[in-house]
Model the fold of this input.
Amino acid sequence: MKKKFTLSTLSMSLSFAVLPCSLAYAQNEECQQDRSLKQCKNTLDTIIVSANRSATDSAKFVGQASKFESDSLLSQSRLIDVLGESPNVDFGRDMSRQIGQNFKVRGFGYGDIDRVIIQQDDVPRDPTLYSNHISSFRSDSDILKNIETVKGASSILHGSGAIGGIISMTTKDASDYLRPGQQYGASIGGRLESNNMKSGMVQLYARPNAAPVDILFHAKRALHGNVKIADGGQDGITHNKNDEHINSYFAKFGWDMNTNHRLTLSAFNYTDKLNTGWQTLYHDYDEDNPVRGKLSQKDYVLTHQYNPSNPWINLTLRAFYSEAEYHRIAKSTTSLSDYTNSDKRYGFSAKNIAKFQTGHLDHELVLGADYKNKKMDATFITLAGKNDTGAFPNTSHDIGLYFQDNIQFNRLILTLGGRYDIFKRKVEKAGGQSYEEKRFSPRVALSYEVLDGINLLAGYSETFRAPTPDETSSQGLLNPHYYYLPNPDLKPETAKEYETGFSVSKNNLFNLGYAIYFKATYFNGKIKDMISLQARPELGEPPERMYPNYPAQYAQYLNVSNVKRTGVEAELKYAIGDLLLSSSYGHLKLKNTATGKRVSTFADRITAGIAYSYNPWDLTAGFKVKHWFKPKADTFDYYSRDKHYSYVNGTFTQVDFNGIWQPKSTGFGFIDQDLKVMFGVNNLLNKKYKPAGTLDTTATGGPGRNYYVQVEKRF
Done:
């Protein structure tokens, strides 16, 4: 009998077709065993892990979290362009390079040092390496099982830096490739884009019956060339120059030591060799004399899972070591700039999930601890020699203890949690400054199911960001404008946020197999003691200048302001037979509480999508539309040297078309077994998108119309 390709199958394999948040779809055990069951045809339940560090129904989570499954991550070349489909996750403001990606999560990201946590398999990433010349997740979409984003202060269980939220990437293992009963396998694949990108990859994987082990090896090479700008570009500039050669290798070994113990070891190696500009997000480059750079990331992760037949014990132990580096050289016959930023980290963590009862209360208690050590360095060499100013090398030591108890009584779930952090920052050179602080961040939340599938949500959370060594300890003439002064008395930034809302999650509506998921939340909070670099002209003139005729002044990082953050986020999915409709909306406002002025400018955005699965052809395709409303700003005028400029003050709309073909009934055995063809056109109408807060004259209008096809074949 021919297997029916239902929408629940579609949702697992093609969430990128239309879903603004590409949410995952969880099904109960009965549905997983038999998807032909009527009540399982359309299920839109979403299970997230990062938010509570345990499996949680998104409809009952007090806060906003999105999950992007494997195939959804391949609808775009850059991860941030996919994640940007989630409400209040912004992208743009860059030249569309892999190495330079501008992003913001609830108002913070690139340029806001350490206010968003980026991690892969719990290994933290610094997207800029403190250089501000790059911004890169340094990952490979083809090895990622999913990505979860948790926004705002509700991400407190992850520690310092979660003011904007977290972006948590999880890698695949052999089980994500092997068919049931298959012991050995291999796959090959390639991708081709009309906007100057191509890649090829190979994977080998095994889980032999003769041994309790599983192995995955992945290798990929991608080439990224000049990026064509939407709508013909601007002022004669039609392409953003780009030349990147990216190699990524990933290996994961798993060992089921017995029925209770599993050990996993993984290694990831990412290298981006490129010709570029000095600042990769905003600068063009001279193709005859480019900046030559190399960006690398190496991760090694060891995980031990102990899960006996005991509801009190579900223990995960993890250790990691990570290295990242960006080295670039710009030289001519008269000048040299040789700059290296490096980041080395190691850490350990332990987490246990216990399930138990006290009277009529059901508990899920998460207890955890983690330690992270980070060493950052920067070396700048010119014709005059080594420049040793700045807060480098520096080290950070972070210790965190956290708990969270989800207590359920009938339809009510009470969440009580918190995290206690001890952090130390130190500059490791003669006369270097040090900084120590402690912080407890609480969380309380209530979820009440007033009717079947209809939940009321309310919660309060706090999170924080510890000052960086650059902010506490920078000293000297670091640029032509400022002579930096250290400030070891800086306070941590803290975010206190209330979040309220409701959700509707119903499957098999009217016993017809229809399904709906809707969640809307309103958040209101304050970010206290924001840190910012401030000029200190009252202290007089610095002892030296970088350029004789360019006057510098003293500057210092200070706790200067409190910021009020309010906003709305909503997501909708509705499934009717083999048709899936979706939409999302995001609104965000950041204001300085003292002045009443906006800290940043944002534009409301709405998305809408439609996808249809045509079963006879095993084909699914759909459209999604993104529309940005006019920004809300205090002023749209900008003056520099008596010249008038205008900030973006208009609407923008982009349309994408995406599809997937997984043939099962063509009659050709080679094609009908484990072939996947993904295809589409991003920015179908070739329209620009200029983010709010950028000048109207900006040439960074985003990439133009881009046809793509990706083919994968497993054996």
About this structure: Residues 619 and 661 are 5 Å apart (CA to CA). The longest helix spans residues 7-13. Residues 1-41 have pLDDT under 50 and may be disordered.
